[in-house]
Amino acid sequence: MQGQELLQSLLQGTSETFYMVSISTLVAIVLGLPLGFLLVMTGPGNLLDFPQVHKVLGAIVNTGRSFPFIYSACGFNTTNTPNC
After folding, report:
1. Which of 41, 62, 69, 82 is the most buried (most CB within 10 A)?
2. pLDDT by residue (tens digit) across 38-66?
3. Distance between CA 24 and CA 30 in Å, rounded?
4. Distance, CA of 30 to CA of 23 (rounded, Å)
5. How open is the CA angle 69-75-80, to the nearest 5 degrees?
6. Around 65, how many Cα atoms within 13 Å sit in the side-chain half-sphere?
7. How large is the C-alpha radius of gyration of the chain?
8. What is the pTM assigned to this prediction?
9. Which of 65, 44, 63, 45 shows the shortest CA–CA distance to 54?
10. CA 5, 10, 14 angle in degrees (round to 5)?
């Protein structure tokens, strides 16, 4: 690869990375903020003290938090085949 091809490849990779990060950020904001807000508000002693909802939301949050670890621990490669 020479100068112009390398620059084009770098710009394409950078734009694809920004696109993926933007989508991930948008999903995290749209799902995470309301979920976190409800989790705090339904906790003991808060405005919407509702233990059953708090327990379910807590389980959802804890499950979602474990996904990055499971993904990295299984060692997914570029063909998306797990190694665990």
Report:
1. 41
2. 999 999 999 998 999 999 999 999 998 88
3. 10
4. 11
5. 110
6. 8
7. 20
8. 0.66
9. 44
10. 150
